[in-house]
Amino acid sequence: KRNTSGFSHSKIILTGEHAVVYGNPAIALPFPLKVEAVIEEVTSGIIVESTFYTGPLEQIPTKLEGIRACIQQVLIALKRPCDKLKITIHSQIPIGKGLGSSAAIAVAIVRGLFSFFETKLDDKTLSAFVHTAEVYAHGSPSGIDMATAMSDTPIWFQNGDIVRLEVTSPLHFVIADSGRIGNTQKSVSRVRALYSNDEVLKADSLRRMKVIAFAAKSAMAKGDIQKLGKLLNENHSELIQIGVSEDGLNHLVNTARSAGALGAKLTGGGDGGCMLALTDSKEKMEEISSTLTSAGAQQTWCFTIEP
Ligand code: MEV
């Protein structure tokens, strides 16, 4: 039986989450937790199989409606709306932890379907279909999750424009899951309410986070990891000020700093989900990882971006 796969991966926002929704620049990194979508022919209907839902596409739960809309649009575009298919999703990315699972799943599915029907897929077409899924999942997504799920290098992202970033010295990261599920749509709307009540706070907050993003880009280009660490700490303070951090994340961030991280911050939508810590060596990375586990992190990952 014929089958093909589409692939994608998770993402980490280094700096600029939330502000990026307002047109500020942000830096994001591809993070090697993988998603594979396997497409094969079956005898009836369209079936989705995954750890979060297995059954007919039409009965997919409301919170996964974005995936349904995306699959249906792709099949219409490919002139295959009545084909009988099974879409099996294998994902290593925990859901609701700020790691971009929804965008990565959609990217893998769209790639899988195009490859199954042996049709060329350019980035613009892929983005348009994934955007459909993301609008259901997040309301008003900036597009950074999708852009990172499609990129093999760190990116600078602003208003949909993507620039590949060079890294000049190794960046060692520890990612830790607080164990609590965040809801990006809710945290994004809370920030919107806060900003719309106070124009001065909004302008100041966005201006400071823009300065941090530009400085982080330049620190990355120069390989100034100490400076990059300080900027991550500053970015975390800004995120606390707009109310998207919480005690559990702050505890892990402080633990990582005390354990010798050069900088630490929450990553993604916040309200739970993950934090990241930056260090300058593989040994420190392992040490911080086990300290974070002892401090209550549900799961940790170590990863290095090589120049
Ligand atoms: C979510 O990964 C990042 C946010 O900035 C939302 C978005 O950019 O759409 C919180």
Overview in brief:
The chain has 307 residues and is α+β, with helices and mostly antiparallel strands.
Helix content: 40-55%
Strand tally: 11
In this entry the ligands are: (R)-mevalonate
Order of helices and strands: EEEEHEHHHEEEHHHHEEHE
- Structural class of the secondary elements? alpha+beta
The termini sit apart by: 42 Å
pLDDT averaged over residues? 96
Question: What's the oligomerization state?
Answer: single chain
CATH class of the largest domain: Alpha Beta
Second CATH tier, the architecture of the largest domain: 2-Layer Sandwich
SS strand fraction: 15-25%
Remind me, CATH topology of the largest domain?
Answer: Ribosomal Protein S5, domain 2
Give an account of the 3D structure.
With 307 residues, the chain is of the alpha+beta class. The protein is built from nine helices and eleven strands. The strands form two sheets. Strands 1, 2, 3, 4, 5, 6 and 7 form a seven-stranded mixed beta sheet that branches. Strands 9-10-8-11 form a four-stranded antiparallel beta sheet. It is globular, with a radius of gyration of 19 Å. It starts with a strand and ends with a strand. It binds (R)-mevalonate. The site of (R)-mevalonate (MEV) has 16 residues, from helix 4 and helix 5.
